[in-house]
Amino acid sequence: MAEQTTEERGIRIEGLGKRYGRGDTAVDALRQVDMSVAPGEVVGLIGPSGSGKTTLLKCLGAVIEPSAGRMTLGGTVIYDNGWTIRDLRALRRDKIGFVFQAPYLIPFLNVTDNIALLPMLAGQPNREARRRARELLDALDVGHRALAMPSQLSGGEQQRVAIARGLVNRPPVILADEPTAPLDSERALTVIRILNDMARKFETAIIVVTHDEKIIPTFKRIYHIRDGITGEEQGEGRDLR
Ligand code: ADP
Ligand code: MG
């Protein structure tokens, strides 16, 4: 296959719509979503509760099916008024890193293996998968908990482990839904710094849903969403060093 050019990678969303249900009780959660995120870019997505943020991430992550529009991910059109690719599980596994609001760790695997599982499933040798896991745990300041079980961790530690898991496969796209909500200010900024480093180093396109005042000033570009319609604004892009 030919090498993808830089412009083709990243995320592009055009005229995306999502209706839940039908008839009298239908809800148009997304009406007109237009967004693009370049490889290496971290953008913020903000909007009031119920405005469609989670719905948008779920559509982009191929967790739910949109009702209309077009989505391009890492150079591939994945949706054009219908899914254009057959294996959505492979898409989710290989192209997308999720960081959810709740950590959803596997209770019977230790911290390192919770993270190393994904690269192992993707065919990485176990040693390399665990090495990557440890590297991320160290960067997120939870290296000392590498062999603990999830139930032994605090909420903030669990969240940092979940963040490491979202990053470990170095996917071209990372979708983060309120990733810093349970973290104190310093740790929230550490997470944003790591996301920016990832973006730069691996040409990752990253969307961060947030209403965390601690991190909003760090974005160079912000999309806002209201009643399922997006708009774009310039962010402060505060220096993270
Ligand atoms: P946000 O994440 O910005 O708070 P959501 O994407 O969760 O917003 O929700 C957007 C709208 O879609 C809301 O009106 C919500 O009630 C509705 N909604 C979300 N999920 C469902 C669902 N599974 N079925 C029906 N309506 C839903
Ligand atoms: Mg939400």
Describe this structure in words.
- The protein is of the alpha/beta class.
- It has one domain: P-loop containing nucleotide triphosphate hydrolases (Rossmann fold, 3-Layer(aba) Sandwich).
- It contains six helices and ten strands; from the N terminus they run E-E-E-H-E-E-H-E-H-H-H-E-H-E-E-E.
- It has helices spanning 53-60, 88-95, 111-121, 126-139, 155-167, 185-202; strands at residues 11-20, 27-37, 42-46, 68-73, 76-80, 96-99, 173-177, 205-209, 221-226, 229-234.
- The chain has a six-stranded mixed beta sheet with strand order 6-7-8-3-9-10.
- Strand 4 (68-73) and strand 5 form a beta hairpin.
- Helix 3 packs across helix 4 and helix 3 (111-121) packs parallel to helix 5.
- The longest helix is centred in the C-terminal third of the chain and has 18 residues, at 185-202.
- The radius of gyration is 18 Å and the shape is globular.
- The termini are far apart.
- The model is unreliable at 1-7 (pLDDT under 50).
- Magnesium ion (MG) binds next to helix 1.
Distance between the ends: 39 Å
Strand order of the largest sheet: 6-7-8-3-9-10
Which spans of ≥5 residues are poorly predicted at pLDDT below 50? 1-7
Number of strands: 10
Order of helices and strands: EEEHEEHEHHHEHEEE
